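ok so heres the complex, three chains, lmk if somethin looks off
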Amino acid sequence: MTDQAYNFAYLDEQTKRMIRRALLKALAIPGYQVPFASREMPMPYGWGTGGVQVTAACLTPDDRLKVIDQGADDTTNAVSIRRFFQRTAAVETTERTADATVIQTRHRIPEQPLAEGQVLVYQVPIPEPLRFLEPRENETRKMHELEEYGLMHVKLYEDIARHGEIATAYAYPVRVEGRYVMDPSPIPKFDNPKLAGNPAIQLFGAGREARIYALPPYSDVVSLDFEDHPFTASKADHACDLCGAGSSYLDEVITDDRGSRMFVCSDTDFCASRQAQGHRGRLSPQGATP
Amino acid sequence: MYVAVKGGERAIDAAHAWLAEERRGDPAIPELTVAQIREQMALAVNRVMAEGSLYDPDLAALAIKQARGDLIEAVFLIRAYRTTLPRFGVSRPVDTAAMAVDRRVSATFKDLPGGQVLGPTFDYTHRLLDFALAAEGEVPPAPQAPARDEPVPHVTGLLDRDGLIEGQPRDDTPAPDLTRQPLELPASRALRLQALARADEGFTLSLAYSTQRGYGRTHAFVGELRIGRVAVQVDLPELGFAVEIGEVELTECDTVNQFKGSKTEPPQFTRGYGLVMGQSERKAISMSLVDRALRWQELGEDFTGAPAQDEEFVLSHCDNIQATGFLEHIKLPHYVDFQAELELVRRMRREAVQMQEAAE
Amino acid sequence: MNAILTGGFAAPSTQSAHAFRALLEAMARPGRIFAVMGAEPPAPISVAAGVALLTLTDATTPLHLAGAADCEALRGWIGFHTGAPLVAADQAQFALGGWDALHPLSRFRIGEPSYPDRSATLIVELDRLEAQGARLTGPGIETEARLSLPETAAFRANRGLFPLGFDCILTCGARLAALPRSTIVEDA
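and the predicted structre for the whole thing:
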């Protein structure tokens, strides 16, 4: 049931055209942040208003939408955004990554590799990768213009001097097509390799900061590093305690106040699919796979 | 035993039902009507209209009721509603010189054409709790005086006549629209004023206060503060003339500030300006001080690093809907990013301990 | 007169949504050809060019009409269906015309160094649009794509301006493809 008081996918057509124009320019200049006239949405800034606007501009009635937050379909904000589109666009929804045509995400890239025909929409809080080094927009804009990314390298190098490695665990900056340095949104750096060479279209929406950017399929995306300190995509050194997966990103769950903990896949669809296929982890109710 | 958390949907529904119940409060107490809020909480309604950028007292009152009196939440409801409204046209600039004033005070002249009108103000009330209000007594009618049938010219106009204040030539450039174009810096004064008019009252107040304490001081006098109703007129091209479509209540503040001049130019006072929907004089005065502080470059003053002089700082942080959304979003799940840091910190600690042991 | 009032989207919100997805995929995958429908602009304008106009332009997007596209019928149609103001080439956010009519291309905006997005999008009407001919590589293309471009030199020069440059939507009948500034174009 759509809410007839609002246009298809909530936004009015003029707003959608404005966002669509920005999206096309974003694809034409990979990694460059296109300013757009972000609207005030009926959900708070910082809660996915950028992603919601991008999704609204891309959705067709034929789409199957998946919404995840922290990799999970059932986190409250994912539920809330999914409901918003069920109500305003009457699109089909799914929790299965492979079945989705549009996936809106916060902080994760699904474990299941994406395919052509899929669109991954990221919610972005701070789109400017240089923002924490230089708070002023006028300055960071100039730095992008002149490809002055030395400050970023200095910061990363200071990390190495202090901690012995680059101490950035999420929102790890990348260089796109050898030109723009881009913030991949606060995904764990474990997910960074999936940004590159991805067959799907990746779109990034920052509502409060009014910026849209994009990665065309198969884009060249390199995580910043140094020859003697190469980038590594790390994760907790465990297997999933429910499905036994050894190569998925894990959430840590504290199970009592005496130091017990377990690790489970953050991607709930991935974990559930594996369990349905009979995979078992250390703490599966049915016991581990022999 | 841990099972993956399911039931977000049910939790949301239950939370909303509980919220509705809490909003209503004790059902034995009569429910507030929107009209009661509009009439008796008028200054809250004004603030919601001003920061929500939508002049509709009934909707603002409804938003306050729905938001349980949380004014920023009410502003948010109004903003979200406002974005969906079609735009039929743009009014002519309102003529505040023709305002039907309820209140008009000047701190710069003892008396002036149009007079000083104290109006319905908290000024000079002793802030003593009035327990008679708790008894719900009716208020005796206020004494009436005949309206003064004379024009109320702007104080700055009087100063301008003598060349004592910087001129303000008429500018018919269409004003930019902050809600339809992404903010671009440097911003024009018109855009800055638009942002300040809907800015958070508390933030604007604190910035203005900081200029008074020396962080970008501008030596402001309230040349004039006026509150009243002005006509809103819309040009109808089909008819070839403008028609009045209604009235809005506004608060306008003109400050007369620190003079400038040089060997070649005789000294002149400068201006700060504030205009806010509804009766909202704390906000209008604050706005005019911040406006003036932001004009340092145009007036050839030094940038002292004061927050109120810093256009990007002020414009990026004055909107309470942006601020509260982003601030409160940190209560959303961040398991994934936190896990990434946890893993990093654990590993670095392990390595540090190993190095320590190796050293020993 | 009737030709002006008809030929728009009958169900704008869903038809433009489908059309945009085709445009999005096209701009994301340079050289790949997509079928679109829903617009019936007056001759000599193609369905695909009409779809692109209806989906992307409105009263806020200055449009330049070049050559045969600059005709009474189309001006009226655009005025009624999109309201896009018609302007000279150097003012245009969008331009529509045949490849030769759009020349000289140096008239079009290529963006500013700090705002490369402030550049024109050219809707290029072609007699032929096939997945053969010039070799395309770059973002959006896994290995290589082929596209029947009217020439390659102009696109190479445009690529040389990156991140500045114009972007193209190539239209032919009810099919379209796109060629963003990022694509590397070589002779077949």
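quick notes: The interface with chain A takes residues 12-14, 16-18, 20-21, 23-25, 27-29, 55-58, 60-61, 113-117, 119, 121, 138-142, 162-163, 167, 178, 180-182 of chain C (CB under 8 Å). thats all i got rn
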